[in-house]
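How a chain folds remains the central question behind the approach discussed here. For one protein, we set the task of working out the structure tokens from the amino acid sequence alone. The sequence in question and its structure tokens are set out directly beneath this paragraph.

_____
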Amino acid sequence: MTGSNTSASTMNGTTTAATLAAVREATAVLTGVVERFAETDFTRPSLLPGWTRGHVVTHLARNADALVNLLTWARTGIEHAAYPSWADRNADIADGASRLGQIQREDLVAACGRFMVEATRLGHEDWAARVQNSSGTPVAAAQIPQMRLFEVWTHLVDLDFEVGFDAVPTGHLDLLLDRALLPHRSRTDGHPLRLTVSLPDGSQRSWELAIAQDADSEVSGSAAAALTWLTGRGRPASLSGPLPDLGAWG
């Protein structure tokens, strides 16, 4: 069943329409940043080891297309893998990063546009369809907008161009935190840890997690600091206690 009734589907209490609106906002920030790149900026190092900013920009474009494949799968019921293979994915990113900056910029804008167009084609029942993410894990299609939002903001930070997690709008933070916490909330073993996050509106959220490494039993701090740590982008001093290295996310 297809259509445009995205607002009826929810993920973690947030409507799909609201999450897609957040994706549009984040994408506007992303394309605005990349629009300001000089040609030499594309070849400068990103915060990801071994990747230039061009690698990150190209990855964000190909990720959008990969998620279009999953949206198409959900809408049609015909399997469309996110990527043909990991080797193809990596080769596409390496090749794309070698292009002229303007071509990379136009590619990113076009891919982001394709994602939004395909997302608006799904109806309520389509969002409940099960597909497989790039790791082969079954997920509900309703998770795809949140997946894209997380990719955009996390790799915006990786571009190392004036945008950090402290730039994330308050309305996006819950979605990003829920996504970043997935590996630790789904663990069935490990060391228990309670994470308490302070949001910009003065409210707090807490989670009981399990992590691979032994550490202090409680960590607290701002949402931006928590996202930096949870995504493996650093261990901010503003978070309480010595923090284990969680490894990079995405």
Remarks:
- Confidence is low (pLDDT under 50) at residues 1-8.
- The chain has two domains: 6-163, 170-230.
- The CA atoms of residues 126 and 160 lie 36 Å apart.
- The beta strands are 10-11, 14-15, 130-132, 138-140, 191-198, 204-211, 218-222.
